[in-house]
Amino acid sequence: MDVSTREQWMVIxxxxxAAQPRVAAQLLGMVRGLGGITDGFSVDQxxxxxxTATRAERDGADEEVIVASLLHDVGKLISVPxxxxxxxxxxxxxxxxxxxxxxxxxxxxxxxxxxxxxxMDTNLRERHVGEPWYELAERFADVWDQKAFDPNYRSETxxxxxxxxxxxxxxxxxx
Length: 175
Hints:
Blueprint: H1 6-18, H2 21-33, H3 45-58, H4 63-71, H5 83-91, H6 97-104, H7 106-110, H8 134-145, H9 158-168
Helix pairs in contact: 2-9, 3-4, 3-8, 4-9, 5-6, 6-8
């Protein structure tokens, strides 16, 4: 890098932009990979992702929120304890800040529903009261995510969400 030229970097930038569709394809593959993970839940994690995104879409959420809802647990392919931050960092360059925060902190909001069984504080979400993204994160956790383990729910297919994922990941908003 220390001996590179502007012309070389322009080639790299052009090729990176041209290859951007691979990001959406890889992320859709990650969602498919969640299909092999149940971890004791009544549906696998791919179905959970589809149900969460479907609930968000049917509730009128925008594309960034729907895509983030679909991808919110992809970090579980790598680390269950740190999965919210992994998913949020994948999303960060492509979504607005409140959507990033919704995913980054979703476990703290989700804890209201089960942390008592683990001897943990069920009110961790309260540390975020007053944040501009609080209501979105609360809606995500309480209305879409925590209810998305229903084996009888009719969710949309992954193919249904593919155009949304492709649009959201077409170009980074930031780096």
